[in-house]
Design brief:
With about 375 residues, the chain is α/β, with parallel strands linked by helices. It is built from 12 helices and 11 strands.
């Protein structure tokens, strides 16, 4: 094999020299930038060819070079043409995708409207179509999604149609009973776990809720309570909980690792109940979720997921999905005093399939927290007064 080194100013110059010296069958082994003897930037090119291949005659190389030059001149135009063609293809594909998306949305809308008109009796002349329609819109005004409102009315269509002269209030009562039955049941065994952890996103109200529950168990139920905070990311959170603990005369431990957490549990082994505060982190922080899940993965720990009633439906759905590895036992819904419509919670609770144990409605400790039953949850979702 014949190997030759070239010191050139550009790759085009190198290719010209290589083809001229070694023929079109030569290959480039390597290229690198160098500083030549004159102190200028240059390009070092190493080329090689099989010695069995005879280099072309000089005039042949000149002819080839001339043809190559013509090709080079048209190369930019060719690339420009290719880019334009690719751009047009991409635009055609995007347009097709948009058209497909619109068609799918129209089909879905048509199916929903067909179902809607069927269940309201507009097509099949069922009884009370006007009343049914008003109830449907009443559900929407409570915050129910269109899909949920449609689904509920469809479920109840047979029951509603079988009864003559039902009023709007009558149908709302039937819907309310349906919502009550759809709520996951609370723990009725009477056995309450001694250790309880509270997880959720930043700003959902975990520390304040923990303080309310500590006061509830300590002052109202006369239980010996211990607190553990894993929230070492915010010094203010530790001091806030420590202040509450000092006022109520409750022992508090701080833990940042699995080892210190286990030690804290041992130190509080004499307590009737232990409440655990956790850091508030983004639900997309997979590292945090893994760490917390590893620390709380214990069958003796009851895990409660806190969600805010002020969050969007997408955010709430994402929360119950992202925290599902914790296999949480209950939901606690916070900040209901900051919301007006709660129908959105119907879909969220049905997706989580976990009971709601408490509602919180303010910053006052320990007053602004209330135990929940399916009846109270249905009243809230249906925008009625919670008693």
């Amino acid at each position: 094999m014949q190997v030759k080194r070239y010191e050139v100013s550009s790759i085009n110059e190198a290719m010209t020299k290589i083809k001229e010296d070694m023929g079109p069958d030569a290959i480039i082994l390597s290229t690198k930038k160098i500083i030549n003897g004159a102190g200028e930037s240059a390009l070092e090119v190493i080329a090689a060819r099989d010695e069995k291949v005879v280099p072309p005659m000089k005039h042949a190389v000149e002819v080839y070079s001339s043809e190559s030059s013509g090709l080079t001149e048209g190369r930019d135009d060719f690339y420009k043409f290719v880019r334009e063609e690719i751009g047009e293809v991409k635009e055609i594909l995007r347009a097709a995708q948009r058209e497909k998306s619109v068609k799918e949305e129209l089909e879905e809308l048509k199916e929903t409207m067909d179902k809607f008109f069927d269940l309201l009796g507009a097509r099949k002349r069922r009884s009370n179509p006007d009343v049914n329609r008003r109830v449907y819109y009443q559900l929407l005004s409570c915050g129910f999604s269109r899909a949920s409102a449609c689904s509920i009315m469809e479920e109840l269509c047979a029951q509603i149609s079988s009864q003559e002269q039902l009023t709007e209030d009558d149908i709302l009562q039937i819907v309310r009973q349906f919502v009550i039955k759809s709520m996951p049941a609370n723990n009725t065994s009477g056995e309450e776990k001694r250790i309880k952890a509270y997880v959720g996103a930043t700003g959902v109200g975990k520390t304040t809720t923990l303080a309310k529950l500590a006061a509830r168990y300590s002052l109202m139920k006369k239980m010996n309570v211990g607190l553990i905070t894993l929230d070492t990311f915010r010094i203010a959170a530790i001091e806030q909980l420590r202040t509450y603990a000092k006022i109520m005369g409750i022992r508090m431990e701080v833990a940042s690792t699995k080892e210190t957490f286990q030690k804290s549990l041992q130190l509080l082994s004499d307590k009737d109940i232990v409440l655990i505060d956790t850091p508030g982190r983004s639900c997309v922080d997979e590292g945090y979720l893994g760490l917390m899940d590893n620390m709380l993965q214990n069958g003796d720990i009851e895990t409660n997921l806190l969600i805010s009633s002020t969050a969007s439906e997408d955010n709430l759905m994402d929360m119950v999905a992202k925290y599902s590895p914790f296999n949480y036992d209950n939901l606690i819904i916070t900040k209901i005093d900051e919301s007006q419509r709660f129908g959105i919670l119907y879909d969220v609770i049905n997706k989580a399939r976990k009971p709601v144990s408490f509602l919180t409605c303010g910053q006052n400790v320990p007053q602004d927290i209330e135990e929940v039953t399916p009846h109270k949850m249905a009243n809230l979702i249906m925008k009625r007064v919670v008693h």
